[in-house]
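Case 368 in the screening queue. Each case pairs one protein sequence with one candidate compound; here the compound is WQD. For every case the pipeline is the same: read the inputs, emit a complex structure as tokens, and attach any notable structural observations.

Predict complex for case 368.
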Amino acid sequence: MTLNKPHVLLTGGAGYIGSHTYVALVEAGYQPVILDDFSNSHPVVLDRLQHLTGQRVVCERGDVLHTGLVTEVLQRHGCVAAIHFAGLKAVGESVEQPLRYYRTNVGGLVSLLQAMETADCRSVVFSSSATVYGDPAHIPVTEQSPCMPESPYAHTKLVCENILASLKGADPSWRVGVLRYFNPVGAHPSGLIGEDPSGAPNNLMPYVTQVAVGKRAKLRVFGNDYATPDGTGVRDYLHVSDLAEGHVAAVRALLAREQSFTVNLGTGEGTSVLGVLDAFERASGQPIPFEFAPRRAGDVAKYFADVSMAEDLLGWRATRSIDDMCRDSWRWQQNNPDGYRTAGNAPTSPVHSLRAGVASPALTGGVV
Ligand code: WQD
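Case 368 output:
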């Protein structure tokens, strides 16, 4: 029965981080409600979530910019909180298409918040990013580090954080949790859900797994002359299951206390590109061909998080290692060489039959 479980709206809940958070919320006793337009996700994920959770998935197809729809979904499910994942996230693309990024990311948040106000649901967790810090002067990066975003994508995240702060200032009954992610990688240990980039991956881990599975010839390591121990860029990679559990901790904290917060979610440890390659070779048992290439525009040498605030405020800390991240990414990629589009993965979910932007009870399985 889902009747007595607190319902939590997940905008973009069919995506990479949203789907892992769906599983973690079910495990923690919540009933997540997905709202997704499937513009960068695939309905097969719903079958996988059903399999993993042993219950029908609650999903509404629609665009978060459609405020009336979001209001109706929040009210119909009696949601007590929302986690806002829906948005565009490619840094390079944001430089080419800034208006699209502002409209989707900033407009999407405003629409959601208006819907939440109408539905009298005032607890929100927001997916922000360590990219708001830009090129940090001090490492580890604390939440007090100055925010100096460099890309339009990063600016949209900071604008959204500011909107949330203004809203909280105007109406203290809002509870706002801002989560600044470092570098999420990995997949659910089942190998059933994972990251499914369309086209050539921009990020390191999906590129490495596609090389390992033979879809790409070799990795280009962007820069080997940084001021780091082996000359390659250092990042704070975080297992997506740890990140998902961080969202559960954030929802729990918001609902239990009056307090709002902005916290980093990372492991507090840095790993270089060559360090990731080593770990991946150990996990997969095969060498990963690579070549050194010039630095990528906009990259910084090194950053990792100070994670003490997440531990103090949320009682959360990451537990999974870089080896766990590589092992689980590799299992996902091996089982799904073409992601959710892999042959034999035909969706059985009725989501295909829905018109975008129209809420349908057909997908609200196992509810109310
Ligand atoms: C990691 C390291 C690259 C690809 C980006 C966003 C950030 C966040 C996570 C959402 C760097 C190197 C990469 C490749 C390489 N996203 N690399 N060859 O740039 O730290 O962060 O994704 O919020 O906002 O900026 O992650 O995975 O792209 O790169 O050598 O083919 O791997 O130079 O050192 P990044 P990444």
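Case 368 observations:
- Residues 89, 91, 129, 131, 181, 183, 202-204, 207, 219-222, 233, 235, 273, 296, 299 surround WQD (CB under 6 Å).
- The chain has one domain: 7-355.
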